[in-house]
Design goal:
alpha/beta; two-stranded antiparallel sheet
Length: 314
């Protein structure tokens, strides 16, 4: 759920807020392209030499890896910054993954503030991220969706209305007037946009394995509040948590439908949210020398890289 400024598949209905994101990620694990190619070769014998050759080439030459995404993939504020326009760090999870897999080629075009529209379209002076893809790309990570919800605006409103009812749920009430769940509707509207991005990645890089990376735990998973650190109303802490869980659930569903693997970064990060003390938290509650406010720090990106690698190797 980044806060940096900056298909036709029907949108799913909102799941119960208590649904486990880890379970959703497990259900969303799509069959590996390499295994699919091997199975096809066994079924048709020598009729599919190209697929088998492609799998062998990946193993022999190393991954040709392209990283796409928003600020949660870019790593704003984490030293060292390699691109100040996009807030990109050399310790973000794409850089760590590229090093771990020994990527033969690595292109990181993640950019703070990016939404699904910036995958195929420019982000002011920043070119469309999908332009980094090539027919011979073998690995793509994609972390996007939060900015489509205008989460910066949501959190700003939550902070402002918290003073009206610090022990209540004023932000939840403001977004559910007249019986409409506005944030749930925004998430549902984002689903077909994710679909379109995944389909375009497949079209541009047909050899690539695609990993759709979810968002880590921002607030306590048990719903407890830490108003001294993050000025939300007490009842809005579990509400924001539930909206993030639902976003991750939808991402997992879209990955499953569109031939990608979902990477659960929420589960491993539980207990390391922005309410925790320095040294324990993987999400910074405010801008600091460790990273941008309400974003993963370097330890958080290490955890996200570990989740990506576990999905690749699992």
């Amino acid at each position: 759920m980044p806060l940096s400024g900056r298909s036709s598949t029907p949108a799913p209905r909102e799941a119960a807020p208590s649904a486990s994101v880890a379970d959703a990620g497990s259900r969303a694990r799509a069959p590996r392209l390499a295994l699919a190619a091997a199975a096809a070769a066994l079924l048709v014998g020598a009729a599919a030499p190209g697929a088998a050759a492609a799998a062998g080439e990946r193993a022999a030459q190393g991954e040709r890896y392209v990283a796409l995404g928003d600020s949660y993939s870019a790593g704003p504020g984490i030293p060292q910054q390699t691109d100040t326009v996009c807030g990109r760090s050399d310790r973000n999870y794409p850089s760590l993954v590229a090093s771990a897999v020994g990527a033969a080629e690595f292109t990181d075009v993640t950019c703070a503030g990016a939404d699904t529209g910036h995958m195929a379209g420019s982000q002011e002076a920043v070119p469309p991220q999908l332009d980094a893809l090539r027919p011979d790309t073998t690995l793509v990570t994609l972390g996007v969706g939060g900015n489509d919800l205008d989460l910066a605006g949501v959190i700003t409103r939550c902070v402002l209305v918290s003073y009206l009812s610090p022990n209540g749920s004023p932000c939840k009430h403001s977004f559910t007037l007249f019986g409409t769940d506005e944030i749930g509707s925004r998430i549902n509207a984002t689903a077909p946009k994710i679909d379109a991005v995944l389909d375009e990645i497949h079209a541009r890089s047909p050899q690539a394995r695609i990993l759709l990376v979810g968002y880590p735990s921002l607030l306590p998973d048990d719903g407890t509040a830490c108003r001294a650190t993050i000025p939300l109303a007490v009842g809005d802490f579990p509400w924001v948590r539930d909206k993030e869980k639902y976003l991750n659930t939808v991402l997992a569903q879209r990955a499953d439908v569109h031939g990608a693997d979902y990477v659960d970064t929420y589960g491993p990060s539980v207990g390391h949210d922005a309410c925790k003390a320095p040294g324990d938290r993987w999400i910074e509650p405010a801008d600091s020398a460790e990273g941008a406010g309400f974003h993963p720090n370097a330890t958080g990106h290490r955890s996200m890289a570990d989740a990506v690698l576990a999905t690749l190797n699992g």
